[in-house]
Input
Amino acid sequence: MNNILTIDGPSGVGKGTIARVMAQKLGWDLLDSGAIYRAFALAVDAKGVDIDDEKALEKIAHTLDLAFKTEVGSELVSVFLEGKDISKTLRTEQTGEMASKIAAIGVVRSALLKRQQDFAQASGLVADGRDMGTVVFAEAAFKVFLTASAQERAERRLKQLQAQDTVGIMSQILADVVARDERDSSRKNSPLKPAEDALIIDTTELSIDEVVAQVSALVTKSQSLSG
Ligand code: DC
Output
């Protein structure tokens, strides 16, 4: 898997931005695995399924009708669930919270595993999430784990919300970020943690360009070593 780059890390660390820039730079495809968990949570919610009903959860995971579409000339990805554009609802804090809860369930993770692995392309893939480097693409050649202080991540999230004209309360966002990290890191199934062979980058004091430079150096260095 010498053309897979995994980018894992806690919520609000900027994985999505770095993954998008890297995919553009390398000309590789992009997998936002969080979007799959978020869409799955929305589907379960819409169907009114009890999250203790593992059989029903498995069935939804296997039949999830999900499509990602990128507008030509735009970097925005729209997400469609059963043909309906769910892009806006997908990104809310509430959906993130639901996704984090449902993502802790073992049968959900195994049912969604192959769907994520199918994104691997001969032409290359950048995959971002929580367990891309440890589980889904454990054989990937390039692995990055991004971190940043909870305060910094909450501030980034607040700016993101403000850019979308959404009101956010800093203390609430910070509490949500901390609670979500705690749940994602302490779960039994594929917890959030760096792969042993991941490059760990603390982005608290770094700009997007500085992080991209470090990730690019990782890919270029090993390509020149093997080439
Ligand atoms: O990256 P995100 O905020 O869109 O992810 C939403 C939730 O989905 C996250 O809190 C935990 C879960 N998730 C996961 O368990 N494994 C992944 N690979 C991606 C996301």
User: Anything to note?
Assistant: The first strand starts at residue 4 and ends at 8. The radius of gyration is 17 Å.
